[in-house]
Amino acid sequence: MDLLQSFLLGLIQGLTEFLPISSSGHLALTKFFLGGDLEAGITFEVVVHFGTLCSILIYYRELIGNLLKSGIGFLGSPKQKKSDPDVKMLGFILVSMIPAMAVGFTLESYIEEVFSNQVTVSSMLLVTGCILFGTKFISDNVKLVNLPRSFVIGLAQAFAILPGISRSGSTISMALFLGVRRDEAANFSFLMVIPVIAGAMLLKVKEMIEVGVSDAQMLSLIVGFFTAFISGYFALKYLILILRRKGFHFFAYYCWLVGAAGLAYFLI
Which of 16, 104, 123, 223 lies 20 to 30 A from 46 at CA? Predict the structure, then answer.
């Protein structure tokens, strides 16, 4: 993999991991149109995912620090800390992981094998567009995330295992449909994905170690990491601004355009 390919894959990963336009869908279509030359190895995949994970950790560093502090305090004195909002948020994040873990450990390989063709990916992008457009008709929300809502949002995250279905688009939209405040919906969507990305990375670390990293690969990995990290950070920041301005549904037009173009190309 040369430096241009590393930059391109890192950029796509960083932008589409957070913008509601499906990272899996864009990577699948990009690899096809470039003749499969962008086939990334397991090591590169782990590195760019680590880049996007770092962008979340940096952006939410203060909030994550408070959550960790409260979590540690809860372990020391559970009864006193039980009513702490940050402790409750940690509990909601853990509950939201249940559907994604269930699907990831049982159906992920099957789903990726059956549904990772270009026609299906293009069709799912159209579905993502419909989900996003539905948020246009939601009035101002005032609710916070609670236990039942966190589980339902987790179901939306599990649904996004389908290539072409946006994870951030599904989870944020579901939170909005449930009446959750826009800022709360965005924060919870990106906090809940931290253990999911970290867990997926850990599952692949062993394979990455077995493959090893050559000196020739190191520069490509560095380029991929920083490209994913920087583009991911700004994509995250931009999306939250758009969400606050109630423009989340505008991403639907992009998903419809790409999905329709893909179907036209692969079916005609």
Answer: 123
The full DSSP string for 224-236 is: HHHHHHHHHHHHH
How many other β-carbons are positioned within 10 Å of the β-carbon of residue 112? Answer: 14
Among residues of the chain, what percentage have pLDDT more than 90?
54
Q: What is the mean pLDDT of residues 213-237?
A: 89
Confirm if 145 and 188 have CB atoms less than 8 A apart: yes
| Nearest-angstrom CA–CA distance, 175 and 191 | 13
More confidently predicted of 22 and 41? 22
Note whether 49 and 197 are within 8 A (CB): yes
Residue 241: which residues within 8 A CB-CB, separation 6 or more? none
Residue 45 near residue 17 (C-beta atoms within 8 A):
no
Mean pLDDT, residues 137-166: 92
Q: Amino acid identity, residue 34?
A: L
d(CA 217, CA 6): 10
* Residue 171 CB-density burial (10 A; 0-12 exposed, 13-18 middle, 19+ buried): buried
Q: How many CB atoms lie within 10 A of CB 159?
A: 18
Q: What is the pTM of this model?
A: 0.91
